[in-house]
Amino acid sequence: MERIVHGTLVRGVDVDSATRCAHYDGPRDVIALRFGCCESFVPCSACHDAVADHPAEPWPRERFDEPAVLCGGCGERLSVRAYLDCGFACPACGIEFNPGCASHYDRYFEGVEPRRSRESTTDG
Q1: Which stretches of 36-79 are DSSP H helices?
Q2: pLDDT class for 116, splitting at 50, 70, 90?
Q3: Hey, which of 9, 10, 20, 74 would disulfide with 93, CB 3.0 to 4.6 Å?
Q4: pLDDT over 70 for what percent of the chain?
C-alpha cells in the first residue's frame, strides 16, 4: 500500500496521514524511514518486508547527511544526523517521536547500535 504523507510517498501496511502503520500506531509513531536498498520511505521494517520484493538494507552511513527520516507531523525531512540529535521531537514542528525506536536503530541506520531510550515505552 502507498500513501502520500505531506507530499512524500510512504509505502507500508495501513499507513495513516501521520505515517503510523499496522505494526506501530501509537501517538508518537510518526516517522517514516528511508531504506538504503530502495530509497523508499516506510514506517517500519515490518512494513518494508510486507511491501518490498527484496531484503531490507539500512540507510548507508556515508549518506547520513541526506534526508532519510520523514516527520509525519509536518512533513519535514531530516537527515539521519539531525534525527539522532533531535531528542525524540521534530525540530520543525515539535511533535514527539517514539523513543522506543532507538532500540531498532540498527535496522534503519548502518553502523548505529540499538540503544535503550531513557524513557520506558511499549510502542515502537
Answers
A1: 45-51
A2: confident
A3: 74
A4: 94
